[in-house]
Design goal:
This protein has about 110 residues and is of the alpha+beta class. It has one domain (about 10-90): Alpha-Beta Plaits (2-Layer Sandwich). The chain is about 35% helix and about 25% strand. Pfam families: ABM.
């Protein structure tokens, strides 16, 4: 995916817990929020559980730039987190990621 080299980047990540791992994934995501909020360039980082769908989560992140997002993803702690996350979710991390690019009316 491509995003503009300037301007903020929004990431939406949908994740579904493996059967029986719903509470584990919720705890995992909860523990990841504060460190991610403290990464350079983070504007917003919010975790949500989909109402009426236990074990389904949405993480909404905004970063000052793609470079800040890339630095977050390359942080040393991510090398440890991703393998643990894969044990908890259905599919891959990439399956649930959407990068959003803002646009506004010209008037």
């Amino acid at each position: 995916m491509t995003t503009p080299s300037t301007g903020y980047v929004t990431v939406v990540w949908d994740a579904k817990a493996r059967a029986g791992r719903e509470a584990d994934l919720r705890a995992f995501i909860t523990a990841a929020v504060t460190p991610s909020r403290n990464d350079a360039g983070n504007i917003d980082y919010e975790a949500h559980e989909v109402e009426g769908r236990p074990g389904e989560f949405v993480v909404h992140e905004r970063w000052e730039s793609r470079a800040h997002l890339d630095a977050h993803l390359a942080a040393p702690r991510m090398r440890e987190l991703v393998p643990r996350m894969l044990e908890l979710i259905e599919g891959s991390v990439e399956d649930g990621i959407r990068l959003l690019r803002p646009f506004r009316p010209t008037h």
